[in-house]
Amino acid sequence: MADILTSELYSADSSQAPLLVLPDVTIMPAAPAARVSLRCRETGLALAAKAFGTPIPQTPLTAETAANRAAFWLGPDEWMLVAPESQLAAILSDLETHLDAVPHSVVDISHRQDAVLVSGPRAGWLLNTGVPIDLHESAFAVGTVTRTLFHKTPIMLWRTGPDSFVVEAWGSFMDYVTGLLVQSAEELKAA
Amino acid sequence: MSQPFRIEKGGRIDRAASLSFTFDGERLSGHAGDTLASALLANGIHLVGRSFKYHRPRGILTAGSEEPNALVGICRKGDQTPNLRATQVEVYEGLETVSQNRFPSRGFDVGAVNDLLSPLFPAGFYYKTFMWPKAFWDRVYEPVIRAAAGLGNPPKNPDHDTYGNLYAHCDVLVIGSGPAGLAAALAAADSGARVILCDEQAEFGGSLLTETAATIDGTAPAQWVADTLEKLSANGNVTLLPRTTAFGYFAQNFVALAQRITDHVSEPDPRLPRERLWQVRAREVVIAAGAIERPMVFPENDRPGIMLAEAGRTYLNRYGVKVGHNVLVATACDTAWQAAFDLADHGVTIAAIADVRENPPEALQSIAKARGIRVEKGCVVTGTTGRKRISAALLGRLRGNGVAAAGEVACDALLMSGGWTPTVSLYSQSRGKVVWNESLGTFVPGQSVQNERSAGACLGIYGLNAALEDGYAAGENAAKAAIGRSGTVSRAQAHGADAGEGGILGALPHDRDPSKVKAFVDYQNDVTAKDVKLAVREGMHSIEHIKRYTTTGMATDQGRLSNLNALDIASKALDKPVTDVGLTTFRQPYTPTTFGIFANISRGDFFDPVRKTPSHDFVAGQDAAFEDVGQWKRAWYLPKDGEDMHQAVARECETVRKSAGLFDASTLGKIEVVGPDAAEFLERMYTNPWKKLAPGRCRYGLLLNDAGFIIDDGVVGRLAEDRFHVTTTTGGAAHVFATMEDYLQTEWPDLDVWITSITEQYAVCAVQGPKARDIIAPFVEGIDLSADAFPHMSVGSGTFCGVPCRLFRISFTGELGFEVNVPRRHGKMVWDKLAKAVAEQEGVIYGTETMHVLRADKGYIIVGQETDGTVTPDDVGMNWAIGKNKADFVGKRGLARPDLVAGGRKQLVGLLTKDPKVVLEEGAQVTKLANPPAGTPAEGHVTSAYHSPAMGRSIALALVKDGRRLTGETLNIPMPNGAIPVEVVEPFFYDKEGARLNG
């Protein structure tokens, strides 16, 4: 299910060339999206859910998705909400309207980070060349989302399928992330 | 190309695959499956190098990674990798190897004169010999020692290989694949646990690959290995890593593995990494590192041809190589007898078995008798002869406290065994404390400190069946501890290869002149039994002191071969039990590990993230020089038509003040502070007051640490009652954010405010100069830019080139200035438009150097340049930034500390050189006198110094003791070419009234 949802939310950016295409793993830049950082206390959760159209996840490392929506748990009072780029203004204003009565922070971070889609049977292996956490499906099941490190850079990682991941990094770090991923995949070309 | 010492058949080498390699230029042949050591031995070569200190001829002592003697250089891709152990180097077609520490050749080595001069080089000779005359140290001793030290030659070129990294997790990590390791892996895998099995050797199996005198479930041990590996590889939860050394056991079951990927391949695919670092986090670890045999410490025990007994057996059974034609076996334990029997069964003459013990087991004696092998009981080796290879050994019979000569035995190889030493290195690295086992006469692992267990021989459990049993149990227990269940694997039964008895420690007695003979304890460092005794006589009573004085145990095996013998010698010399003398600590790495695997991907462009701004490609295309600011690449200056830096910066400065300049300020840290308590939060963080700042207005903010010292600054704009846009310095962005988050989470969790980094949400183009408004006006919609509606220190939201924009009217140049914040991905488009507009107004694109000069004209400080973590707001004349009526802010109490309010602090001043053309050096000291006597403390130092085009002269800022009181006085800047006189002035130079920036 997650796979289907993300194909709308996170799609390959048709204006950019793939970064890596191998039989066992590909890396595609994702198209821009609306990203909103939501911070609030428990009092705001139901209101935010109503405004955004998905429940606001309260279990660590989880995401809630609906058509064209994903809400990622990133911390006890921190979520990232993702939607198609064109809906940014509407989402910001809906959130502000619904949350008006409770303390909250809604900040547009659509441009702060970029995403790439890493997929294929060796995607998890390739990510683990720089991601220190356990990406075995028993430990990092489909749907899991987390902030972590890729070598020296913070990233956000969301598993959208057994062999597919969304990797987000701040814009200026993306060259480092994708450059190292491509370099580390070099050995997969060897016979 | 013949291999005279290769047996007709048997062994695990691939006889069909004949490989050609060279050693010191000599072309030799071996087989796939050979190590360099086994291939050299097959060719009858025992002499492989010279020892470290005495340059004595040395041969191959072991068949494993603990090898102390056979260190060789491997030539590959035009370079040489030194000090590889021939016992680990796998032979491939075309392998080129060289011996080390010999000149001109390993057969004739002039350094061998050291052996004759050895009375001059006792333990600790460095400390005694090179003490005087003092002047000789730099000119004579150190150069000579440096030239003589070390073994191989370091590589000369940058590393041409790549190295991989992989983070891995497992339920059970099994280290070592001998009987215990394989059984543990089987048992753990059977439970469904995720298992990683690694072994430092090319093939899994450990001692089972050598064992031919036993069966497991009725089959040969090697066959059981093959069957077991088939089962393990069929299990998707098992990762098998041969050629992989577990070299470091760190906290929380974090184990580092070094996997060798291409070193054994003749023509490796260049896309493969040479090695891979596995950073493994294991729930449970089974250490099955086995045991290694101990050398016997008898005189001249280091000649080529002298080898550990089990190594001799390994070369025979695993590699199909006889270590000699006429072999003497000297032992203190049962296991070496099997080596003699195996060799005899392959037609090798056994000159004798000399056993230290008076009564070796009858069973062994009868087997020897059946094979017609001479047995000498209660007998030790007291010396050997032979120049480049052993030719005979002297035997001595133990008589009470002495030894009686018992004749000479001719031999071309000597296999020895002083017993077995469990390999406790990794256990020790895991912070476990070893305990002395009296019956085994060795140290074994004690209590586990981490989630690990040792199994088999490394725990002191010897004998094939016992090791298997222990391995199964360890694997089951590990799985149970890791995942809460264990499997039901059927346990194989072994027959044969029993534990055996015996073993001895320390120097063996002999009838030779003790002052003339050398009995080696640590082969690699040339430490003899005599050296250890000397160290004790000279007052070294702790094993740690003895180790450092003699260097015993400091070889690449970290004393795995030598420690127990050295310990026994020391304990007898001290007349204390070994447990009171102690054992030195084993440290990471287990065996030498390449620098490459540690540097790994952190090389070249990936040494650290390189962060680029939206204007990067544009200014790069204009030949900008770049400056590293943290991880950012920032344009430093943009030279035109062959300008040097000075000319370019002067032009940029003049143009900004005359018309306008465009500057990429995207790297500045940006934090959006939102919530009903946003103003209260900033009130507490910054020195300044915020509550009365109206939306749409900006204020310069100063951030202190608890001690009252300046740590950051920046402009803060209030976007709405509950929303602020905070900027920080480029380098301070991450730290400021973390500090704010820290205070929010730990001190003020009650505040309804949240911070979000928006550094990379916005690209920032600064347009500065008298024409700045004219330049941006055509692009701006929704903001009235007139001076009245949008004065200096304003912020507004609108659109810029049609995209959303936060526009700041602020200035770090002293000119009319705007900073255009647009969503990052629009940054390039906006920059390009502005660059064109700026050019049309005859403006300029400027870099960080010009920004520095322009702000210095105005006396604006840069945190980290005018401040160094010990500077208060008052020191830099910024008490105006402190909210006098505020109840508290971070650093308020710090500022009241007596030393911060006392007189005599260094204060920010301006300095003008008497000669306006002279630009001071930043960091230069400031003194009162032109030629102060040596030892005079400086009055302060220069923090910033530039040529200022606006002032038409040099300017400088400095921190000077009581500086503000010295205005108008002359101070000096002492330099190598004489002091530079300077006049103290107020720390601002240009447009003091601010007419320009309010324009």
UniProtKB/TrEMBL annotation, chain A:
InterPro entries, sorted: SoxG (IPR007375), TrmE/GcvT-like (IPR027266)
Q: By what name is this protein known? A: Sarcosine oxidase subunit gamma
TrEMBL record, chain B:
Which positions fall inside the GCVT N-terminal domain? Answer: 616-886
Q: Which GO terms describe its molecular function?
A: sarcosine oxidase activity
Q: Name one GO biological process term.
A: tetrahydrofolate metabolic process
Q: Which Gene3D superfamilies does the annotation name?
A: 2Fe-2S iron-sulphur cluster binding domain, sarcosine oxidase, alpha subunit, N-terminal domain, BFD-like [2Fe-2S]-binding domain, FAD/NAD(P)-binding domain, Probable tRNA modification gtpase trme, domain 1
InterPro entries in UniProt: 2Fe-2S-bd_N (IPR042204), BFD-like_2Fe2S-bd_dom_sf (IPR041854), FAD/NAD-bd_sf (IPR036188), FAD/NAD-binding_dom (IPR023753), GcvT/YgfZ/DmdA (IPR028896), GcvT/YgfZ_C (IPR029043), GcvT_C (IPR013977), GCVT_N (IPR006222)
Domain Aminomethyltransferase C-terminal residues, every copy: 906-991
**Residue intervals of the FAD/NAD(P)-binding domain:** 171-444
Q: Which UniProt keywords apply?
A: Oxidoreductase
Q: Where is the SoxA A3 domain?
A: 518-599
Q: Identify the NCBIfam families for this entry.
A: soxA
State the family named in the UniProt similarity comment for this chain: Belongs to the GcvT family.
What name does UniProt use for this protein? Sarcosine oxidase subunit alpha
